[in-house]
Amino acid sequence: MNILQRNDSVIVNTTSNPAINIIYAVIGSSAIIGNVFVIALNVIHRPMLRQIPNKFVVSLAASDAISGVIIFIMPGYALPVDRYFYPKDIFLGSFFCSLIDSSVLFFTSGFISVYTIAIISLERWYAVSRPFLYKRIFTKNRARFCIACIWLFVPITLIDGILQKRFVPNLFPPCQWFSLFGDDITSANIVFMIIESVRIFLPVIITMISFADVARRMSDGRDIKLSVSNSMRVLIRRRFTTMLCIAAIALILCWLPNEIYFTLVQLRVVKYEPIVHAITKTLIVINCSINPIIYAATNSIYRQGMIRLLHRIGRCIRCKNAPAINPAGVGSPRTATIDNL
Predict the structure, then answer these.
(1) Lower CB count within 10 Å: N or C terminus of the chain?
(2) CA distance 302 to 294
(3) How many other CB atoms are found less than 10 A from the CB of residue 26?
């Protein structure tokens, strides 16, 4: 991440293409709207939110929605650097450089999504391979505890990014990168690899192993043999698991190229290339907006719920005196089967 901060500044300073800013603005808007819909659907329809996997889905949607908001406040994304209003005050400038210009807030919400997907993969593994232990291990309180731990732990892993941006008011842009280790490349590489392994590579490995085993068990029908539920419940669980597996694959495909590339740059294995960085950075930005699309495309409960929610919103817009959204009307006729996830 330390190399990433320096190179983010380089890219932003040399890029002023309005089309790129518009693309980021569209992605950010899609991330906010889509993920707010996911959260609203779960909050309005209480039976959904009472389910363990949907609690993690809401946490994932919240982190992705926050990423969408941050896209609009980071220089060089939705807003071009040459038109960005940087703070003049030293205190505000230092705060801005450490948290916003450094991309720490954006990567914090992103890595929260990475860890949430990892927990989801473990939750789905137990649901498929250990159904008799599932309800004992994944209780509502433990799910809330896991979510709280993720949101509290992940920001700590971004401490290197916070400490490696300085506010220099007589320069433009005023946020400048520096290395905590100076010319000590060996120490910098060791610390970088430890932190990077914790915040991205470890959760990704857990996700890949868990979902690979889930896919293997589902492909040979082993999950059906172990299940104590009827065939309809197994079908619903399979579809929900497939939805989350696709979301995990999308996250890995969007995040790993950037993290692997900058690990190689940090270790001096490859040279830094602005065009490669632009591509990998865009993939990360795209990831925060695609999960609602995946949910709607692969899961009928989410798809029908979103359609009904859209219809309700449309009626409210057309008629100011329309009644409030009825929670019972948001879900689909099949929402009674949500309990079988």
Answers:
(1) C
(2) 10
(3) 13
Task: Taking residues 44-55, report their average pLDDT.
Answer: 86
Cβ neighbours of residue 211 under 8 Å, at least 6 residues apart? 121, 124, 125, 245, 248, 249
Q: C-alpha angle with apex 58: 54 to 61, nearest 5 degrees?
A: 135
- Contact present, 208 and 267 (Cβ < 8 Å): no
For residue 103, the 8-state DSSP code is S
In this structure, the number of other CB atoms found within 10 A of the CB of residue 75 comes to 22
Q: Which two tokens stand for residue 174?
A: 């005023």
**Phi, psi for 210 (deg, rounded to 5):** -65, -50
The pTM for the full model equals 0.85
Per residue in 259-269, pLDDT (tens digit) is 999 999 988 89
Q: Alpha-carbon distance 51 to 327, whole Å? A: 16
Q: What is the pLDDT of residues 157-182, one digit of tens each?
A: 998 888 888 888 888 888 888 877 77
> Residue 320: its pLDDT value, please?
66
Backbone angles phi, psi at 171, to 5 degrees: -115, 160
Exposed, middle or buried by CB within 10 Å (0-12, 13-18, 19+), for 333? Answer: exposed
CB atoms within 10 A of CB 24: 21
In CATH terms, the fold of domain 2-340 is: Rhopdopsin 7-helix transmembrane proteins (1.20.1070)
Domain spans of the chain?
2-340
CA quadruple 302, 136, 247, 112: dihedral, nearest 10: 110
